[in-house]
């Protein structure tokens, strides 16, 4: 018998206005759920009325932009994933008009074995201009990227995102299963640079875990947090938390907001990881240990005294980062990589 995941904690919004969250909540490092945060959205009200009403409401804002769609045969049971030998994927991608995708989804609503249809990570203001005028969350001064996700009964493998993430279920019902970052080793992650949507994913099928192939997944489940959200509910997923998302109804819409708690001039740490694979992982053990100490000293446990012996004008790359120094470091790296 598999371990039972604990529920994700539920909290009150903490904002003065509907659809607002306090600054402290938006800086949280643990996940939480806010029931009914977007209950006042017209899109949510339409979805609670009927699928057709939600579909019609979305179409009111559509002006013809194409979207990226992922399409899979009924045999994949909504799980967008690799093919059997991990040489490719079990679905195909296409650019299409959003209204055509909605029409395709409508044709499968009553089908017990539908094809999997998914429009993921599409900028709301690009494909549905005007939607956010009355369907939005107040994030204060944060310059968040608002994206929309539309599909039928789909399953998105556990993955992490660098930004903080506030996800709002606008139509349908979804199940979220979350894991803290330290469960990485127990999730059996696939290739870092070849994956379905740009993020490394867990290879475990959550619907049918293979205990023989993935025995440590049981330990991951001991640390998992899970919740089901209805239209109007929201979940906060902190940076780097692994999350598996299942859409449970024939028509599902999610709007999410991504933002980073760091300046825009900072590059993604994924670049550092890939460079470390290129430059460090294959070194002899004692050399790797030496580099581990360098990273500890300068990156993971920096202290003011580390550079105190250097006058400020002579610290160069060790000086506090700003936009100008970030640009200079990026140029230096690019020049060094031109071999």
Give the tags.
339 residues, alpha+beta, Jelly Rolls, 23% helix, RmlC-like_jellyroll
> Biggest sheet: strands side by side, in what order?
2-12-9-14-7-6-3-5
The rounded distance between the terminal residues' Cα atoms is 54 Å
What's the overall average pLDDT, rounded?
Answer: 95
- Largest sheet features: 8 strands, antiparallel
Number of strands: 14
Radius of gyration: 22 Å
| Anisotropy-based shape | globular
Instruction: Give the SSE order as H and E letters.
Output: EEHHEEEHEHEEEEHEEEEHHH
What is the helix fraction of residues, given as a range? 10-25%
- CATH homologous superfamily name of the largest domain? Cupin
| CATH C-level class of the largest domain | Mainly Beta
Determine the number of helices (DSSP H or I, runs of at least 4 residues).
8
Poorly predicted regions: none
Domain module tally: 2
**Secondary-structure class:** alpha+beta
Beta-strand content bin: 15-25%
CATH fold field value of the largest domain: Jelly Rolls
Annotated CATH architecture of the largest domain: Sandwich
Short note summarizing the structure:
By secondary structure, the chain is of the alpha+beta class.
Explain this structure to me?
The chain is of the alpha+beta class. It folds into two domains: 6-259, Jelly Rolls (Sandwich), CATH 2.60.120; 269-337, no CATH class. It has helices at 42-49, 51-59, 98-107, 124-127, 217-222, 269-279, 285-300, 323-337; strands at residues 6-7, 32-34, 66-72, 79-80, 92-97, 116-123, 145-151, 155-159, 164-171, 173-179, 225-230, 234-237, 242-247, 252-259. Strands 2-12-9-14-7-6-3-5 form an eight-stranded antiparallel beta sheet. The longest helix is centred in the C-terminal third of the chain and has 16 residues, at 285-300. The radius of gyration is 22 Å and the shape is globular. The relative contact order is 0.16. This is Cupin-like domain-containing protein.
């Amino acid at each position: 018998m598999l371990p039972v995941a604990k529920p994700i904690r539920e909290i009150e919004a903490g904002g003065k206005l509907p659809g607002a969250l306090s600054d402290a909540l938006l800086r949280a490092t643990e996940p939480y759920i806010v029931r009914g945060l977007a209950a006042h959205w017209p899109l949510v009200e339409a979805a609670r009325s009927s699928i057709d009403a939600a579909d019609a409401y979305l179409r009111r804002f559509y002006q013809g932009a194409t979207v990226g769609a992922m399409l899979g045969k009924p045999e994949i049971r909504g799980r967008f994933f690799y093919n059997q030998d991990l040489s490719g994927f079990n679905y195909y991608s296409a650019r299409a008009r959003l209204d055509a995708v909605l029409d395709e989804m409508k044709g499968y609503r009553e089908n017990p074995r539908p094809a999997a249809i998914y429009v993921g990570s599409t900028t709301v203001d690009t494909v549905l201009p005007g939607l956010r005028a009355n369907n939005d969350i107040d994030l204060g001064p944060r310059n968040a990227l608002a994206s929309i996700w539309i599909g039928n009964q789909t399953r998105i493998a556990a993955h992490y995102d660098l930004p903080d993430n506030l996800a709002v279920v606008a139509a349908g019902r979804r199940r979220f299963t979350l894991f803290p970052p330290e469960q990485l080793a127990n999730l059996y992650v696939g290739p870092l640079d070849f994956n379905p949507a740009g993020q490394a994913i867990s290879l475990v099928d959550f619907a049918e875990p293979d205990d023989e192939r993935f025995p440590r997944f049981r330990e991951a489940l001991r640390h998992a947090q899970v919740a089901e959200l209805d239209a109007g509910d929201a979940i906060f997923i902190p940076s780097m938390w692994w999350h598996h998302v299942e859409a449970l109804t024939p028509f599902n819409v999610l709007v999410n907001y991504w933002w980073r708690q760091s300046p825009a001039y900072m590059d993604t740490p994924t670049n550092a990881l890939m460079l470390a694979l290129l430059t460090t992982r294959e070194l002899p053990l004692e050399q790797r240990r030496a580099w581990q100490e360098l990273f500890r000293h300068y990156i993971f446990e920096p202290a003011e005294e580390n550079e105190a012996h250097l006058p400020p004008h002579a610290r160069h790359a060790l000086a506090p980062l700003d936009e100008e120094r970030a640009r200079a470091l990026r140029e230096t790296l690019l020049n060094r990589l031109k071999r």
